[in-house]
Amino acid sequence: MRLLVVEDNRDILANLVEYLELAGFQVDCAEDGLTGLHLAATVDYDLIVLDVMLPGIDGYTLCERLREIMRSDTPIIMLTARDALSDRLQGFRLGADDYLTKPFSLAELVARIEAVLKRTRGGGRRVLAVGDLRYDLETLEVRRGEQEVHVGPIGLKLLTVLMQRSPGVVRRETLENALWGDSPPDSDSLRSHIHSLRQQIDKPFARPLLHTVHGIGYRLSEV
Fold this sequence. Notes:
There is one protein chain. By secondary structure, the chain is an alpha/beta fold. The protein is 43% helix and 22% strand. It has eight helices and twelve strands. The strands form three sheets. The protein has a five-stranded parallel beta sheet, sandwiched between helices. Strands 6-7-8-9 form a four-stranded antiparallel beta sheet, with helices on one face. Strand 7 and strand 8 (142-144) form a beta hairpin. It is elongated, with a radius of gyration of 19 Å.
């Protein structure tokens, strides 16, 4: 699933992008309304997360242009510090599908995104895929070809990041932060979990997918 996040506060934007990517979404971002409008008009997104207070054109105007002029039916979740009922009603009148007031929990935002996607897309599942490896983010089922692969909770977190960024290289620090936040254990811990994941998704199969990029990190790809 590909999302567009339009938010002018760089710290908030960075947190949103990082959390949503770890949740398995592909994320594009814009820091002003005009850039957001251009991206929304030229790229096929599954959902737009849209701040109200933006430079250029505000979120209300952007939402209205998408709905009235471009006839876009892409789901929109609006973010705002305004909590008055009149502000929320304005967003809904202009075509927003949901409305979240700042400050908010990132976990709640993901839950709102999933609920809107299910409602607007008929409940379709989110599945990550690299080659013949499939990871269903809703059922947590991992399969390689026709064979089910049993991966533990830490392995699933690693898979989410590696599959989302595939075929790119994911730095060790990024994986450590995804697993342990700002307090990673000793340097051998990540290597140990990568080894376990490789045993689960690669060892029984002819072609390896998980590759070590020495001195940098790891990547998941067919080549």
